[in-house]
Write a structure and sequence with these properties.
about 475 residues; Aspartate Aminotransferase, domain 1; binds pyridoxal-5'-phosphate; 16 strands; 2 domains
Length: about 475
């Protein structure tokens, strides 16, 4: 079937063919790996919840000389000469992001989600700790502080507390955990989920926040299959005098696509929001921050606070992706991501799989493969991969197998929904997953080794290939 997307992809075919031919003459391994990656992606049932397929216009926008320019600073306020074109793309990206999310201000320079979170944390520290200190000491600039005052300020930065979702409940390392710089900057306390329901227990969270009195309350997750009530989170933050920071890296596409509205939309409630652009939002690899007036100026100092020179080519691609997300078709896409996740979850439940929280109402489905199949997440992940199903293992609340082997498999619907999968295809996908895992057995007491009968692997591979053939990736693109 010829759709506008197919026509665009077909028009890009000679462009990519020629570009790869030229690259091949300089470094053939790179050209070969780029071609191979397309074949691999086309041939796999990608259920990694944090991945997607950006459009060819978005991808092509990244491959230009906008990458060659240094542009530290912000629009019309650069530390380098000759930045007018970077100004144009950065302003366009920010304008689209503000309109898309109904945000007061957007800062589109962060290179990734981690960077966006760091910009957010330091903007909050700068605004709520540094600025009042400078005012109290009558200093205009950090360089005006004496050595002792500066050291006292540095200690104060380091004494702040954050509260974020625990890792096994679905939180992210950047929410104050020790292996990330956020854990080295802040003292941290986690909130978990209710042991019975698997859902956030807002009363328990409120009680814990009252006791701990965090400086920043972090909402957001990587593996929680449910929506969050941001109005309640804000009321908790206000009650304890905390700043509400929402990391919507995972579910930004559902916010942009108006699936999360009212209390489920973080933007009206958070002081600062950070996000990636490449997950459910389907843009280039990168990040951005949205702010309320109090934090706008501090957020804009992300470079040089924690970022190097902005990536002009990626900001340009963000502008294209945000423009795409403002089209009505993106709202249809986002709605499909959520209904497809329900179909996948129901398909798995019907086939006897235990799901954390018993289902989903976002884009994530989290399987408990330990209690469902007697497997670790690692065994299940590899058995599924053998059959051409790409997922990732993930901890589940109170995980008996720890963070490395885990007891869970996390699935997400954004990527396959971009290929055109609907409810029926996700039900079939549920059947393929259950078929593989039911027939996979742990080897002895090993948490890593497993066996799946070769016949099952072959059958599932061929059924997955049939399914994928109906929904080609980048239809019309020929290399
Ligand atoms: C909630 C959340 N925040 C931040 C990040 C970091 O994003 P990036 O990998 O782009 O740095 C992730 C990515 O996994 C995430 O899930």
């Amino acid at each position: 079937m010829t759709t506008p997307e197919t026509e665009i992809n077909a028009a890009f075919s000679p462009v990519y063919q020629q570009a790869l031919g030229l690259i091949e003459q300089i470094e053939p391994r790179v050209a070969a790996a780029t071609r191979q990656e397309l074949s691999d992606q086309r041939a796999s049932l990608k259920l990694i919840a944090s991945e997607n397929y950006a459009s060819l216009p978005v991808l092509a926008t990244m491959g230009t000389w906008l990458s060659d320019k240094y542009a530290e600073g912000t629009v019309d306020h650069r530390f380098y000469a000759g930045c007018r074109n970077i100004d144009t793309v950065e302003a366009a990206a920010a304008e689209h992001a503000e309109a898309l999310f109904g945000a007061h201000h957007a800062y589109v320079q962060p290179h990734s989600g981690i960077d966006a979170n760091l910009v957010a944390y330091w903007a909050i520290l700068s605004q709520r700790i540094e600025s009042p200190t400078l005012a109290r000491l009558g200093a205009k600039n950090l360089n005006d502080l004496s050595h002792d005052d500066w050291e006292a300020l540095r200690r104060e930065f380091n004494q702040q507390r954050v509260m974020g979702m625990s890792l096994d409940a679905g939180g992210h390392l950047t929410h104050g955990f020790r292996h990330n710089i956020s854990g080295k900057m802040f003292e941290q306390r986690s909130y978990g989920t209710d042991p019975e329901t698997g859902l956030i227990d807002y009363d328990a969270l409120r009680a814990s926040a009252r006791e701990y009195r965090p400086f920043i309350l972090v909402a957001g997750y990587s593996a929680y299959p449910r929506r969050v009530n941001f109005a309640t989170m804000r009321s908790i933050a206000d009650e304890v005098g905390a700043v509400l920071f929402v990391d919507m890296a995972h579910f930004a596409g559902l916010v942009a696509g108006k699936v999360f509205q009212g209390d489920e939309d973080p933007v009206p409630f958070a002081h600062v929001v950070a996000s990636t652009t490449h997950k459910s939002l389907r843009g280039p690899r990168g990040g951005f921050v949205l702010s309320t007036p109090e934090f706008d100026a501090a957020v804009d100092k992300g470079c040089p606070m924690v970022l190097g020179g902005p990536l002009g080519h990626v900001m340009a691609a963000k502008a294209v992706a945000f423009a795409e997300a403002r089209r009505p078709s993106f709202q249809t896409y986002a709605a499909n991501v959520a209904t497809n996740a329900k179909s996948l979850a129901e398909g798995l439940l019907r086939r006897g799989v235990r799901l954390v929280t018993g289902g989903t109402d976002n884009h994530i489905v989290l399987l408990d493969v330990a209690s469902s199949f007697g497997l670790t997440g690692r065994q299940a992940e590899n058995a599924l991969l053998d059959a051409g199903i790409v997922t990732n293992r993930n901890s589940i609340p109170r995980d008996p197998h720890g963070a490395w082997y885990t007891s869970g498999i996390r699935l997400g619907t954004p990527a396959l929904t971009s290929r055109g999968f609907g409810a029926a295809e996700f039900d079939e996908t549920a059947d393929l997953i259950a078929t593989v895992l039911r027939q996979t057995a742990a080897q002895g007491t090993s948490q890593a080794k497993y066996t799946t009968p070769a016949k099952v692997v072959d059958q599932v591979q061929s059924r997955a290939a049939d399914l994928l053939a109906k929904y080609p990736l980048y239809p019309g693109l020929e290399l």
